[in-house]
Amino acid sequence: MEQTASDAQDRLTEIRARISHAQQRFGPPARSVALVAVSKTFAADEIAPFLEAGQRIFGENRVQEAADKWPGLRERYGDVELHLIGPLQTNKAREAVALFDCIQTLDRDKLAVVLKAEMERAGKTMPCFVQVNIGGETQKSGIAPAEVVEFVARCRTVHGLDVVGLMCIPPDGVPAGPYFAHLAVLGAAAGVQKLSMGMSGDFETAIAMGATHVRVGSALFGHRPKT
Ligand SMILES: *Cc1c(COP(=O)(O)O)cnc(C)c1O
Fold it and tell me: Which atom of ligand 1 is closest in space to residue 224's alpha carbon?
C-alpha cells in the first residue's frame, strides 16, 4: 500500500486522539500511554512517513526483518525506540540486543540467562516485559498466570534483568477486557509498573484496564498481507 506523509500524519493523529480520549475517560489517575506502532511486514519506505510525522516508538516481531529495515531508518531518523514483540530464540539474542531497545517477550529462564549475558557483552541494559499467556492457550507463548510473580522475581534477583512490565496477547474471538484486567492484577502482584496490552481492535479497552503501552499495527499502517 502506498503511504503518503499526510496519510501517516492523519492516522497517527486519529489514533493519538483516541488514546488520549480513552485516558481522559478512564482516568484519573492520569497515566501516560505509549503508542507502539507495529510496523511488521511493512517496508522501510512505508514506515518512513510515520517517522516523518513524529512517531518514534515502533514494534517488530521478527529479528531478521528488523535487521533488514531498522539500521537504515535509525540512521535517518535518530532517536527511535524499537521494541521486540515477537518470540525470541536464544540463538538470535545477540542480534536482538544489538537491534532493539526493549524486549517485550521474555518468557523463559533460558532466554533470561542468554539475554543477560548478551547485554553484558554488549555493555547495554535493556528494559524487558514478561510475556504472559493470559488465556492459557497451548499455541501461545508466555508464562502461565500462576507463575508470573515468581518468574518476575527470579528474572530480577537471579538473572539480574530490568523487568519493567507485563505483556499479553489475549485469545481471539472473545472479549479481551477480562484478560486485560487479569494482567493488571498480575502486574500489581509482581510489582511492575508497565502493562503492554491492546492492539488495533481493542486498545481503548486495554487503556481502561490500565495499559501503559498499546501495540497498534493495522489501524496505522493498513491491512497486512496474510503471512
Ligand atoms: C501484529 C501484532 C500487533 C498489532 O496488531 P494489530 O491488530 O495490527 O494492531 C500487536 N502485538 C503483537 C504481539 C503483534 O504481533
Answer: 8
Atom of ligand 1 lying closest to residue 219 CA: 9
Q: What is the CA radius of gyration of the chain?
A: 17
The arithmetic mean of pLDDT across residues 119-145, rounded, is 97
pTM of the model: 0.95
- Closest C-alpha to ligand 1, atom 13: 85
Q: Kindly report the number of other CB atoms within 10 A of residue 98's CB atom.
A: 13
Q: Which residues contact 15 (CB under 8 A, 6 or more apart)?
A: 35, 216, 219, 220
User: Is 111 inside a domain boundary?
Assistant: yes
Instruction: Report the CATH number that the domain containing residue 135 is assigned in CATH.
Output: 3.20.20.10
Domain tally, the chain: 1
Pocket-forming residues, ligand 1, beta carbon under 6 Å:
38, 40, 61, 85-86, 169, 199-201, 215-219
Residue 222, domain member (yes or no) = no
Q: Tens digits of per-residue pLDDT, 47-101?
A: 999 999 999 999 999 999 999 999 999 999 999 999 999 999 999 999 999 999 9
